[in-house]
Amino acid sequence: xxxxxxxxxxxxxxxxxxxxxxxxxxxxVITVEDYPTKEDLEKLEIRxxxxxxxxxxxxxxxxxxxxxxxxxxxxxVLFQKDIEKVCRNDKEIxxxxxxxxxxxxxxxxxxxxxxxxxLMGRH
Length: 123
Known about the structure:
Elements: H1 3-15, H2 19-22, E1 28-33, H3 38-43, E2 54-57, E3 74-79, H4 80-85, H5 90-108, H6 113-119
Parallel strand pairs: 1-3
Antiparallel strand pairs: 2-3
């Protein structure tokens, strides 16, 4: 899939986030990269040929302080090539983009992986 079409899937997935949550998202950039960096994988202790579908780079809302002052934007990254590797067709890619974006937004709101998976019914 070309990058433009993939980015359009990300935009549509964002538009499907309930407005009550979208209204609370502030100073966050959502980007698409082909693959995670070596530093991303090392930081998350992903070894070998492990895949990373998305990443939240920032300070979750509950951990912020009024003393932090001006901040650079947080970033949510979706890794297109790794997402494509786990999907068989465009419909699966669209569904996975939706799932990964929701997962990373949940990190923005302060949820851990365990809490997210529990909400998704994946204990």
